[in-house]
Amino acid sequence: MAESDKNNDISQAPVPRRVGIPAHEVIYQKLREKILYGEFKPGGAVTLQGVADSLQVSLTPIRESVRRLIAERALEFHGNRRISVPKMTQGRLEEIYTARLNLEGELVKRAVNGITEEKLTALESIDHQLDLAISEGDTLNYLKFNFLFHQQLYQMQHSEIILPIVETLWLQLGPSLRVVCGRYGTSGLSDQHKKAIQALRDEDPLAAQKAILDDILQGRQIIFEELSLQNVDFSTI
Amino acid sequence: MAESDKNNDISQAPVPRRVGIPAHEVIYQKLREKILYGEFKPGGAVTLQGVADSLQVSLTPIRESVRRLIAERALEFHGNRRISVPKMTQGRLEEIYTARLNLEGELVKRAVNGITEEKLTALESIDHQLDLAISEGDTLNYLKFNFLFHQQLYQMQHSEIILPIVETLWLQLGPSLRVVCGRYGTSGLSDQHKKAIQALRDEDPLAAQKAILDDILQGRQIIFEELSLQNVDFSTI
DNA sequence: CAATATTTAATTTGATCAAATATCATTCAA
DNA sequence: TTGAATGATATTTGATCAAATTAAATATTG
Asked: How far away is chain B from the Cα of A128, in angstroms, using its nearest Cα?
């Protein structure tokens, strides 16, 4: 595999020798965020040693972090002991969106039960920053605030099972979403978020659910067109 | 170590280094099965060193396996660096069953598209062995064949996203299911499996779905009664 | 006696090393 | 030129060790 395909360059800040939180935990969070926001190329190779070198840590905590990400399907473990960022396929995409529609549909229905004014204003603030990112064509911030919006919405009510599952779905979507947004931009994404916020204010769970499901369907439409109609290889930028 | 202390006698010091599948993978499978079939007590502590000792392996591969199981929520990592089998709570149970109904409902609908006579007879064989386990009051085999039935059913059609998620849900249910079955036995579990098999033969996806959803709801009823009405502490045998 | 401080034991954590395995580039034969 | 062997390089893997951290057991104090 060519050097340019490697996803090892994640050196931003050397992991501080901090006490308390274990390195494997810190590294996990760091890698997770990078994958979530599309800083890893679909199909790109990941080597334990490469990650260890770029983070200036020994292999042991890297291994623990990476196995964890493999369990979440954010990374893929091949029989020949190689690790890579999964490529997106049509079947995979279809399953991910089916699961999202089901599970996020449940979460948004429940959200109404846990509304507080603080959480609502936080949600609106995130949505505002999302609008800003869109108007500036800032792909990375678009991805970040779009994720944060959904996360904040689903966190209106405590969820310790379904929400973590949903986050693994976003994690699997991250690398490919970045490619799509990078190519097409984010301008066409008129959002259903405002409708969802209004529905929450009206304490109307079904309206909120419809808005979010439409939001998901709209995103699905875009990424599916990319994958099927143009027959795009998601592993290339 | 001094040179004179080295043992160069080949006949005495064979290095027992396995080849093939990595130990962290084998250990993962082993632990996973134990959790799935309820050999771990809910709330029970798990120590890396304890697992390492019992499996006669060093800590390194154990750590990788356990982090993976933590990511799947089969185990729980506490801030104070302790690991335990999660206790079941009413909220958790409710979320697990909501997710199961949604996701397994999708899988069984799709199953009809991938039917082969081979898979159907395999399914019937599993169901037969399940009946046997029930009639003998064999809790462990009940759990095993009940899981295998659902797994075989959902594998009629390839699923690389939703099925693995569903399996993590079963994994979280394992320890508590064992407790419930151990206390109540398995005799009351009249199964919807026969109806599901017939529906598959009729290529009727909705009937198959209904059968499986009823099966899930029936199981939910039993375990919910245990947890809420009797206010049972699942962490005790 | 109860509550708190101190010591002791057990466990986790991260680095390092040797062995196993895989990848890559080169050579050599057809 | 192609394609299989070969050797060199890189990576993974599992064991081991020292340091950090936590839990427990013991001692101390009011």
From this structure: 31
